[in-house]
Amino acid sequence: MPLLVSGSEVKKILKMDDCINLMEKVFIALQKGQSIQPLRRAMWLPDKNGLLGTMPAFDGNSKMNGIKVVSVFLDNHAKGLSSHQGVVLLFESETGSLISIQDAEEITAIRTAAVSGVATKILANPESETLAILGSGVQAETHLEAITKVRPIKKVNIWSRNNGHAITFIEKHQNRFNIELKNYDDITEAVANADIICTTTSAREPLLDLEQVKPGVHINAVGACTPNVRELGADLVANSRLFTDSIESLTNEAGDFIIPCKEGRFDESFIQAELGEVLTGVKEGRKDPHSITLFESLGIGVEDVACADYIFKKATELSLGTNITL
Fold first, then answer.
1. Whole-prediction pTM value?
2. Structurally, what CATH architecture does the domain formed by 3-108+301-323 represent?
3. For the chain, what is the radius of gyration of the CA atoms?
4. Which pLDDT tens digit goes with each residue over 128-148?
């Protein structure tokens, strides 16, 4: 009987520290060719306001395979709903039996930020103390936690299209971490002195460009995950050292990359490396304190499968979840 694990149980089991460590192992195995990661498939709805995506993968560390089925509706933030909703299905690899069904919303929220934590750990300047977060939703919350795990953050600047949401965000998290959180109405002021910037918005047009950021900044670009939307201006991307989780995903799905490519700004040779290549020493990460490093996050299925395996084992150990009969 498959084990059904709810969102609240996922959140109880999958802690950020553990997930950051897990994601490092995921990228190392992927780079070594031990995992299988096909490009995800997306079916757009007729009005183009949302899509249904399927993300299969085989995780070489756990020897488990699975698939995330997720709907992506970027306008859901305005409705008080998550932009990403769905389930992760975990199958064991001996008989192909379905062993677990898990809430994808919480897994996505945690593992996406954990991957940005890995990128920040290997690409951001070590002494980075000021973090700017653009956005005030779920990913803003998890990125606040992830980045403070890997860098000595002392100040966090928050900007959101909805200033009320930003104020609520700060009120919720002000006492959670021993750092200063400050709300900014102006995006340029919010990022001006930031050592690390996380863009976690549903923007369709660029919010951030080169003249707004300082030399040496590290950027985690998270919100734009389809070819026709972007959070970053072409000048900023063109003057950054670009890293990603999956080059195949980047070149097929990332508007931040695809749109400037079509404009003739650069081509695939501009991409520096995948995270796994930096983690294994195959390619270099940050070269100097003054370069702008950019991690373009797309999210890949092997991250979800690895999390699902970890959650399944922990849930079994802790007697969490519900066995169901299909």
1. 0.95
2. 2-Layer Sandwich (3.30)
3. 19
4. 999 999 999 999 999 999 999
